Amino acid sequence: METRYLQFNDAHLRCAADLIRRGELVAFPTETVYGLGCDATDEQAVKRTYLAKGRPSDNPLIVHVWSKGQIPEIARDVSPDAQKIIDCIMPASITVVLPKRKIIPDCVTAGLNTVAVRMPRSQQARDFLRYCDVPVAAPSANTSSRPSPTTWQAVKEDMDGRIAAVLCGSPCDVGIESTVVDMCGEQPLILRPGIVTADMLEELLGKKVRVVTDPKEKVNSPGVRYKHYAPKVPMALELEGDEQKLKNLYLKLQAEGKNPVLLVENPQNFPGFNVYCIGQTDREVSRNLFSNLRALEKNYGYIIASFSSKTAFAQSILNRLVRSASHNVV
Ligand code: AMP
Ligand code: MG
Fold first, then answer.
1. Cα–Cα distance between 179 and 198 in angstroms, integer?
2. Is the pTM here over 0.90, yes or no?
3. Residue 310 exposed, middle or buried by CB count within 10 Å (0-12, 13-18, 19+)
4. What range(s) does the YrdC-like domain occupy (predicted)?
5. Which atom of ligand 1 is nearest to the CA of 100?
6. 67 is in an annotated binding site
7. Which of 96, 145, 191 for a ligand 1 pocket mutation test, highest count of atoms within 8 Å of Cβ?
8. Which of 14, 144, 173, 196 would bridge 55 by S-S if both were Cys, CB 3.0 to 4.6 A apart?
9. What beta strand segments (E) does 74-146 contain?
10. Crossing angle of helices 10-21/123-132, nearest 10°?
11. Is the pLDDT of residue 225 over 60?
C-alpha cells in the first residue's frame, strides 16, 4: 500500500477523515506521541491496527475524542471524581479508564468491560478528531516494542507502506505517552505515569491516588507488562549522574568494540567521548527522549544513558527509560 503524507489544511483533513470513516488507518500528531488512528466502532479497522503495529491483541487501545460530549456515548457510570477530571483537566495528557458502552467493540478493549478515554491537548489532534467525528482508537504509531514516534518522520520509519496516511504535524511537545488513570474503583489508580502526576490528581480530587509501581503487580492494564520503547541497540541506564562510572563503562564497551555513545545531562564533562545531551530540564528530556533513541541507534552500537532528576515528572520519564534499557540499570 502506498502511504499518503498529508498536511494540516482543510482538503487534507477531509481526506484523512474520509479514510478513517472507510476503515483505513491514519497516523496523527498529539502533544504526547503520534497516534495510529482508526474508527473505534469498526471492528475490522481495529484489527488492522493491531496487525500494522504487530501489537499483541490483549493490549487494549485508547479511544480519542475531540469533544467532552462524546464521552457519555462511549463510557457509562462516570463517577463524580472521573467527572471532575473531565471537567477540570481535559483536554490534557491524561487517559481515564471508565466502564464501557457496547458501541465500543471488545477488540478495542481486549475484552475488558472498561474503555480508556482521552481528549488530547494538541489542537492539531483535536482538529483531526473533529473532522473524523467518530471516536478514534489509537495506540502509539510505532511498531510494537519500538520507541514511540514523536515526529512524522519517525512514524514513516515504522509505518511507511503499512497504513493509508500520515498527517504531518508538529513534533510532539510532551514526548512520552499520557498518564493512564483507572477511575472505576473507589481509589484512583495510575496504571501508567505521565506528565499529569499523582500529586496533581490528589490536589484536584482531595484524596489519595495510588500509583502502580511494581511491574509484577497484576493490574487491569495488560500493556504495561510488554517489552517497550526499546532502541535497536542495547542500552544501559545510570541514575546518579556518576560520571566516573559512566566513563568506565564507556571505555570498557569501547575496548570490546561495541561502539558506545553517552546520553547524559552534562556532555561538556566528557571531552573526547561520543556524547549527546539528554536534556537540561525534565521537559526537555521527555520531549527528546524517543527521538534521541531513534537517532542514536542509527550510528552507535550501545547507548549509555544517565538521568538523575528526582521530581515527580522525572519518575514518569524513568518509567520509559527503564523499559527502553530493558531494565539494564547499572
Ligand atoms: P499505547 O496505545 O501504546 O499508548 O498504550 C495504551 C495503554 O493504555 C496501555 O498501557 C494499555 O494497557 C492501556 N489501556 C488501554 N485501555 C485500557 C483499559 N480499558 N483498561 C486499562 N488500561 C488500558
Ligand atoms: Mg505504545
1. 9
2. yes
3. exposed
4. 10-196
5. 19
6. no
7. 191
8. 144
9. 94-99, 114-118, 136-137
10. 50
11. no
- 116 C-alpha vs ligand 1 centroid, how far in Å? 7
Nearest to 89 by CA among 197, 220, 173: 197
Helices (H), 61-182: 71-74, 80-88, 123-132, 152-159
The answer on whether 116 is annotated among ligand-binding residues is no
Helix 282-299 with 312-324: angle, nearest 10 deg:
10
Tell me what pLDDT residue 213 has: 74
In this predicted model, what pLDDT tens digit does every residue of 130-154 receive, in sequence order? 999 999 999 999 999 999 999 999 9
CA-wise closest residue to 292 among 254, 326, 328, 261:
261
For β-strands 94-99 and 114-118, DSSP reports them as antiparallel
Tell whether ligand 1 has an atom less than 6 A from the beta carbon of residue 145.
no
Q: Which residues pair with 325 in a beta bridge?
A: none
Q: Dihedral sign, CA of 56, 110, 156, 150?
A: negative
What is the position in ligand 1's atom list of the atom closest to the CA of 139?
2
d(CA 224, ligand 1 centre) in Å: 8
Tell me: the pLDDT tens digits for 179-190? 999 999 999 999
Residue written as grid cell 538523575: 308
Which ligand has its closest atom nearest to the C-alpha of 183?
A: 1
Nearest to 219 by CA among 251, 252, 185: 185
Mutual angle of helices 282-299 and 152-159, in 10-degree steps: 40
Grid cell 497504513 is found at: 163
For the Cβ of 107 lying below 6 angstroms from any atom of ligand 1, the answer is no
**Ligand 1 close to Cβ of residue 39 (< 6 A):** no
